[in-house]
Specification:
Blueprint (H helix, E strand, L loop, with lengths): L2 H18 L14 H11 L10 E6 L4 H14 L4 E4 L11 E3 L7 H15 L10 H15 L4 E5 L18 E4 L7 H4 L3 H8 L8 E5 L3 H14 L2 E5 L15 H16 L5 H10 L7 E5 L2 E5 L5 H12 L7 E4 L7 H9 L4 E5 L1 H4 L16 E3 L1 H9 L4 E4 L2 H12 L1
Parallel strand pairs: 1-4, 1-5, 2-4, 5-6, 6-7, 9-13, 10-11, 10-13, 11-12
Antiparallel strand pairs: 2-3, 8-9
Length: 413
C-alpha cells in the first residue's frame, strides 16, 4: 500500500461526498433502479464499451462470504499468471483495496483518478438519472480503471443486493456469477423475506451466464433454479470444498466460499488450471478481517468484519472451538440501528461485549437511529479501549470493517 497514493485518492473521492451527496447519503441516486444505469452512462461517456469487453468477468453476490470469495477467486487466478482486476467493498485499511490489479504497482492510479475527476466535473454532461456520490464514484472509477489497464479477468464484488447494485452493469456478454450464502441483511432495501433477498442477489444473472451457487436450504436454492431457467443459464449448486488445506484461512465456513472460487477458476483456466498451484497459493493466503487471528506475545487477537447475525454465528462457531478462550468482543457500527442485533448475536458467544462509537476510533460520524440502545450495552471510550488492548485478555474486534482497520493499524501493526 502506498500511503501517499491513499491520501490523494481519499481527497479525490471525498470531494464527491462533499460536492454531490448530503451527509451520510453515500448511495445516490435515490431511485434504486437507476443505480446501475448511472454507472453504464458514465462508463460509455468515458469510452468503455461494455458490449465488447476483452476481459472475462466474475460477478459475486451474497450476504455472507462474497468478500472472501472475491479474494480467493482473484488470488487463485492471479497465481495462475493472469492479469486480474479486483473490485471489493468496503475496504479495511486502504481505499486502494477497492480497485486493485494483483501484482501491479498501479503507479499511475492517482494521475488517472485526477483526470477522471476532471472529466466528470467538466467534460461529461450530467446524467438525468442522478448524480454520482462517494460510493458510486468509487465503483465507476474502479471499473473504468481496471478495464482501461487491460486486465484478463475482472472479479467484482457487489455492494448491496445485486439487481440494483452499482456493479450490475455486466449483462450484455456471458460472465460467471458466484452466489455465496444468502441471509438477512439490508432488509430495509432487500426485503424481510429470505426469498425476496435471494431474488435481489439473483439479479446479477443474465442470459447465457454460468452460475455457481453454494448449497443452502431448498427455498433459497429454488429461487436461483427459477431464475436460471428463465434466463437460460447453466446453474451448478455446490457443496463445500474439503479437498485443499487452508493453513492460514480460519473457519469451516470458508470451505463454502472456496468451492465457489475454485469452480470459477476452473471455468476460466480450463486445461491451464492446476490443483498443485492452487494449493501453493492457498498455503500462504490470509483473508484480512475474515477470522484473521494473531498471537501477540501471550495473548491472541482475532479481527473479523462480521456485521450481521449470520456472519457472527460463523465467527462464534470458530471462537467456541478455539484452543484458547476468547471471552471479550469489542464492536462498532456505522449505522446505530444495527447495534441491537449485533450486540444480541455477540452475547451468545462472549462473556464481555463492549461497544465503542465510530467517532472514537475514526473521523467518520455514524448514522444515528431512533431505536433505543440495549439496556445492558457497555459503551467504552478510546481510553477504556486502550486499557482493554493493554490487558492480557484475548480479544475479538468485530462489527464493522472500520474497527478492523483500527485493529490492524493500532494493535497488530
Amino acid at each position: 500500500m502506498n500511503h501517499s497514493y491513499d491520501r490523494k485518492l481519499h481527497e479525490i473521492f471525498n470531494s464527491f461526498l462533499r460536492e454531490h451527496s448530503p451527509p451520510n447519503d453515500l448511495n445516490r441516486p435515490k431511485d434504486l433502479t437507476a443505480k446501475p444505469l448511472v454507472i453504464k452512462y458514465y462508463l460509455k461517456q468515458l469510452g468503455i464499451d461494455l458490449d465488447n469487453l476483452d476481459a472475462e468477468v466474475v460477478h459475486i453476490a451474497g450476504t455472507s462470504g462474497k468478500g472472501s470469495t472475491t479474494i480467493m477467486t482473484s488470488e487463485i487466478l492471479a497465481g495462475h499468471k493472469l492479469k486480474v482486476g479486483r473490485i471489493t467493498s468496503p475496504y479495511v485499511q486502504s481505499i486502494q483495496e477497492r480497485f486493485e490489479i494483483l501484482n501491479d504497482d498501479m503507479s499511475d492510479v492517482v494521475d488517472v483518478a485526477e483526470n477522471f475527476k476532471r472529466q466528470i466535473d467538466s467534460d461529461i454532461p450530467k446524467s438525468d438519472l442522478g448524480e454520482l456520490g462517494y460510493i458510486s464514484a468509487l465503483i465507476l472509477f474502479g471499473i473504468f480503471y481496471l478495464i482501461s489497464k487491460g486486465v484478463d479477468v475482472l472479479v467484482v464484488e457487489t455492494g448491496i443486493g445485486g439487481l440494483y447494485d452499482f456493479t450490475n452493469v455486466f449483462n450484455t456478454k456471458p460472465k460467471i456469477c458466484l452466489i455465496s450464502d444468502i441471509g438477512y441483511d439490508h432488509t430495509d432495501l432487500l426485503g424481510e423475506d429470505i426469498q425476496d433477498i435471494a431474488h435481489h442477489k439473483a439479479g446479477i444473472i443474465s442470459c447465457n451466464d454460468k452460475v455457481f451457487k453454494i448449497k443452502q436450504e431448498e427455498k433459497v436454492n429454488n429461487v436461483f433454479k427459477q431464475v436460471a431457467f428463465a434466463q437460460s443459464v447453466d446453474l451448478e449448486i455446490l457443496n463445500p470444498d474439503m479437498s485443499f488445506e487452508l493453513p492460514k484461512i480460519k473457519g469451516v465456513h470458508q470451505r463454502r466460499n472456496l468451492a465457489l472460487a475454485v469452480s470459477a477458476s476452473k471455468q476460466i483456466l480450463k486445461s491451464d488450471y492446476s490443483e498443485t498451484k492452487t494449493q501453493s497459493i492457498l498455503n500462504t493466503l490470509r483473508l484480512k478481517a475474515r477470522v484473521d487471528e494473531y498471537r501477540l506475545d501471550d495473548k491472541w487477537i482475532i479481527v473479523d468484519g462480521a456485521h450481521n447475525p449470520q456472519k457472527i454465528s460463523a465467527l462464534g462457531s470458530y471462537v467456541s472451538n478455539h484452543k484458547v478462550s476468547f471471552d471479550t468482543a469489542i464492536f462498532t457500527v456505522f449505522k446505530y440501528e444495527r447495534i441491537n442485533e449485533i450486540h444480541t448475536a455477540l452475547k451468545n458467544f462472549f462473556k464481555e461485549v463492549y461497544f465503542i462509537d465510530l467517532e472514537e476510533i475514526t473521523s467518520i460520524s455514524p448514522v444515528l437511529s431512533q431505536k433505543e440502545l440495549p439496556h445492558d450495552l457497555i459503551q467504552i471510550n478510546r481510553g477504556e479501549l486502550q486499557d482493554l488492548i493493554s490487558s492480557d485478555k484475548n480479544i475479538v474486534f468485530t462489527g464493522s470493517m472500520y474497527i478492523c482497520g483500527f485493529a490492524y493499524d493500532n494493535v497488530i501493526k
